[in-house]
Specification:
Blueprint (H helix, E strand, L loop, with lengths): L2 H16 L14 E2 H11 L5 H10 L5 E3 L5 E4 L20 E6 L3 H7 L1 E2 L6 E3 L3 H9 L4 E6 L1 H6 L5 E2 L5 E3 L1 E2 L4 E3 L3
Antiparallel strand pairs: 1-3, 2-3, 4-7, 5-10, 6-9, 7-11, 8-9
Enzyme class: transferase
GO molecular function: NAD+ poly-ADP-ribosyltransferase activity; tRNA 2'-phosphotransferase activity
EC number: 2.7.1.-
């Protein structure tokens, strides 16, 4: 992805996940917004792209952060919202173990309180350790927790999987966490 496409992708993450009001768009209850309006309002804001560039960003984003609806006239972020929306995901049984990547500076806080969603709608978990490491690297020196997801599910916690393969849950109490370095 070029630097310009990376900047556009970051901007799309901001407006489709956190602050649609910056450019004056509305997200419906499921997080969708009109593609043409998004392009027009983004261009008016100074972030210049067209439908061809948007299609390329959605198709080639390695994390599949964005998705079009079936008729390709609406777009939304796949997960990671801090604005209240209902993504329409169904509760699913997760794998036995999932992983959570973070920065080393957050380890003690997580050991004290468990994983909490903070300003997001869900805690994000990975099905493989390499993805968790990459996520952790965004927060400094990476650290990975194992999450006993199947046990949580059996204990009536809900799990969802986003369009881009990220596992989502409301919180992970400390008794379902294990340091991956143990």
């Amino acid at each position: 992805m070029s630097n310009n496409e990376t900047n556009i992708s970051r901007f799309l993450s901001l407006v489709l996940r956190h602050q649609p009001e910056i450019i004056g768009i509305q997200l419906d209850q499921n997080g969708w917004t009109d593609v043409n309006e998004l392009i027009e309002r983004s261009n008016n804001y100074g972030i210049k792209f067209d439908r061809e560039i948007l299609n390329h960003i959605v198709a080639t984003n390695s994390k599949k952060r964005f998705a079009f609806n079936e008729t390709l006239d609406k777009i939304r972020a796949s997960q990671g919202h801090s604005v209240a929306i209902e993504l329409g995901y169904k509760n699913q049984k997760p794998p036995e173990i999932l992983f959570h990547g973070t920065g080393e500076k957050s380890v003690q806080s997580i050991l004290d309180t468990g994983l909490e969603k903070g300003s997001r709608q869900h805690v994000h978990l990975s099905s493989d350790i390499n993805t968790a490491i990459k996520v952790g690297q965004r927060h400094g020196k990476p650290f990975v927790f194992k999450v006993f997801a199947e046990q949580m599910y059996n204990d009536k916690f809900e799990f969802f999987i986003s369009d881009n393969g990220v596992w989502l849950t409301d919180n992970v109490p400390i008794n379902y966490l294990k340091r991956n370095d143990e």
